[in-house]
Amino acid sequence: xxxxRQNLSVIIVSYKSEHVIENCxxxxxxKIEIIVIDNSNSKDLKKKIEAKYNNVRCILSKENLxxxxxxxxxxxxxxxxxxxxxxxxxxxxxxxxxxIFEVSKEINDFGIIAPISSEAEYxxxxxxxGNKFDSNKPFAVKSVDGYAMLLNLKKLINFDFFDExxxxxxxxxxxxxxxxxxxxxxxxVPSAKIHHLGGRAVDPQYKNEIEYxxxxxxxxxKFYFNKKHYGFLVALSKVFKNLxxxxxKYFYYLITFNSFKRKIYEMRLLGLISSMRGKNSYYRxxx
Length: 287
Prior knowledge:
- The protein is of the alpha/beta class.
- The chain has helices at 21-26, 43-52, 66-76, 96-104, 171-181, 207-230, 232-255, 259-276; strands at 8-14, 33-38, 56-60, 82-86, 90-92, 110-117, 125-126, 139-140, 143-144, 148-152, 185-196.
- Strands 1, 2, 3, 4, 5, 6, 8, 10 and 11 form a 9-stranded mixed β-sheet that branches.
- It starts with 7 loop residues before the first strand and ends in an 11-residue tail after the last helix.
């Protein structure tokens, strides 16, 4: 079955994203249903965008669920065959979805199909080792970044999508790995381009607290991902250099009185230690 405007929903998980989310919505065809999951539980945002856009439905999550659980909530509210996951700081080029629709007429064996980042130096995919591809044609990949991925819900009826133990980072890598392990295909469509601001989905006035959040969860997720798929010892080997580096830099910034940098490496240590001890990804931004 090919993708059309009628059988596609777009899911956008937002958190303090009022400054960018309308640019994202405006880049999507107004005939396509958009479901916004707002993790900041903003009634003002819900009222504003539902009044402005006839094709947008905003669901308030009541609590900050994170990316994976937020996307799962969006998927549960989709009654169509396909769901495009987008971050609120992503915009689509005018013909991006049309290009994906055309490709889906010929490629129907995908679990995920995704547009390509307009920033060639920052690719939004990872190739299988040794794979070559024609940059003018759709090509198979190992994984795609979670800020833009289109899921084939009809094909993946009994699949558990995002692992909700991840709050932030690597939930997309985990999803792609499980799909590939199940024999599913993941494709990039190079004629469908997107623009990603990169880490600007949250209002910049919260930048310090978000930086602490990112560092805590990056280390938590890195250990958890590797332990889940490869075992404790492999996970430990993957993070050992990070652990030593974070300790050294924490004490360096402590004695040089750089409180911001010290806090960053403190967050890295705390996130990593929490994951190594088997604790959940509990840290949340203090906004």
